[in-house]
Amino acid sequence: MPTPFTALIADDEDAPREQLRAALARLWPELDLVAASANGAEAWDDCLAHEPDIAFLDIRMPGLTGLEVARRLAALAAPPLIVFVTAFDDHALAAFDAGAVDYVLKPVDDIRLAQALARLRARLAQAAPAPDAAALQQLLARLAPPPRPAPRPIQAGVGREVHLIPADEVIYFEADQRYTRVVHHGGEALIRTPLRELLTQLDPEQFWQIHRSVLVNSRCIARAVRVDEGSMVLTLRGRDDRLPVSRQFQALFKGQ
Predict the structure, then answer these.
(1) Residues 138 and 36 both lie in one domain
(2) Quick check: 173 and 160 in contact, CB under 8 A?
(3) Those residues with Cβ within 8 angstroms of residue 101's Cβ, 6 or more apart along the chain or in another chain
(4) In the β-sheet with 242-245, what is the strand arrangement from edge to edge?
(5) DSSP label at residue 129
(6) Same domain assignment for residues 135 and 44
(7) Are residues 31 and 68 in the same domain?
């Protein structure tokens, strides 16, 4: 028996999320729903953990929007097929019919969802089911939200003091089970802010996620070194650290 395809759904409202879950169970019972995320940052984290074939993303979510999650997914080595879910039938939705992605309106209608699922099945049946990355990036650029304001300094408690670390001085963040380690030009600190929350605050053009537990300041990268067929590490300017790059993120370092 073939392995079932996997999917993730993300919506910050309980009712629409459960409605979509129920509709998928009716219309595609073989589809394996691996995660139901409650916000954009959680959706991104769950996509890295489960690597679904399909991601159903609400467009308007707090923190990372569905569009921002899609933009990050499009940069992965093997991005999922993306279906946007939205309550807003505005002029931008016409762009989705180009075929790079699909969309359904809330409340979800079984007939329209069935059409989207038929398109997904056709894509998945192809030898290379991933969406056209260039078309998806072009679409996301058209729908891009306004730029974020400059990030606030990272606040790290040291004894009775709170140290303020400017984001530009951070070299990389490394998460463990309880804390996030902040390596900066002045030393190191531990904070309780999880990596998924930092992703919503920092400029993705400057801070690149290269591993589920590592976020690096791209301005501090010296080179990417391919160790073997599946392994890559980063070296940093003026430091001996070697940071692992997981398979999903190796596409960031394609070279010319």
Answers:
(1) yes
(2) no
(3) 70, 81, 82, 83, 84, 131, 136, 139
(4) 221-226, 232-236, 242-245
(5) -
(6) yes
(7) yes
What was the pLDDT predicted at 99?
Answer: 40
- d(Cα 176, Cα 194) in Å, to the nearest integer? 9
Residue 122 placed within a domain: yes
In tens, the pLDDT along 176-228 reads: 888 999 999 999 999 999 999 999 889 888 999 999 999 999 999 999 999 88
What is the residue type of 187? G
Both 131 and 208 in one domain: the answer is no
The boundaries of the domain holding residue 223 are 154-252
pLDDT number for residue 228? 85
Residues 103-128: tens digit of each pLDDT: 888 899 999 999 999 989 988 888 54
> Mean pLDDT across the chain, nearest whole number?
86
CB-count exposure of residue 51 (10 Å: 0-12, 13-18, 19+): middle
Any domain includes 147? no
84 and 196 part of one domain: no
The candidate with the shortest Cα–Cα distance to 215, out of 204, 225, 224, is 204
Give the per-residue pLDDT at 204: 87
Q: Which two tokens stand for residue 215?
A: 């976020």
Write phi, then psi, for 222 (nearest 5 degrees).
-90, -50
Note the pLDDT tens digit of each residue in 50-85.
999 999 999 888 889 888 898 888 888 888 999 988
Q: Outline where the chain has alpha helix (H).
A: 14-27, 40-50, 66-74, 110-125, 133-142, 195-199
Q: Is there a single domain that holds both residue 89 and residue 159?
A: no
The answer to whether 85 and 104 have CB atoms below 8 angstroms apart is: yes
- The CATH number for 102's domain is 3.40.50.2300
Higher pLDDT, 256 or 7: 7
Same domain, 14 and 77: yes
Q: Does 148 reside within a domain?
A: no
